[in-house]
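Listing S7. Sequence submitted for prediction.
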Amino acid sequence: MSSNRKLGLVKKSFQMLTRQLDEKDRVAIVVYAGAAGIVLKPTSGNNKAIIHNALENLSAGGSTNGGAGIELAYQLAQESFIQGGINRVIIASDGDMNVGTSNTQALIDLIKQKKKKGISLTTLGYGMGNYNSHLMEQLADVGNGNAAYIDNLSEAQKVLVEEMSSTLLRLLRT
């Protein structure tokens, strides 16, 4: 994720999504390079400047500890759980989980456990050239969510603004 083409696109994509949020929404940002860490604690969606600042300060590391990042993201989602609301973890990655829990079945088992707590998973791929679409789709499937590949801002607009709204509304009706 270290190339500006990947991380820069992630930042711009999530800024688009942020513009759709309001005070009822909660956002947290977790990074998962060599280790997992919290960049932004759960924050109201109407605090757009704080969210944008956290996004701008993201930087890429050399390895991907996806399992630890997923664990931490679900922990924050559980702490901010909105009863009767849409509770979702969104992973932005190239799917190259190469540190910590990197075994596909172990990651799938982890996501299955977390799904039982009412939190769904969306995976967004940003790995031009080395994107592991199979893993990202598997994780989204077992996480009761959806997967998408974003390689430009038009696709980000489609996935995170246009389609995400319809996906979330569909989830509220079911």
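Caption to Listing S7: primary sequence and predicted structure tokens for the chain studied. Helices lie at 4-18, 48-56, 66-79, 104-115, 133-142, 153-173. The chain has one domain: 4-165.
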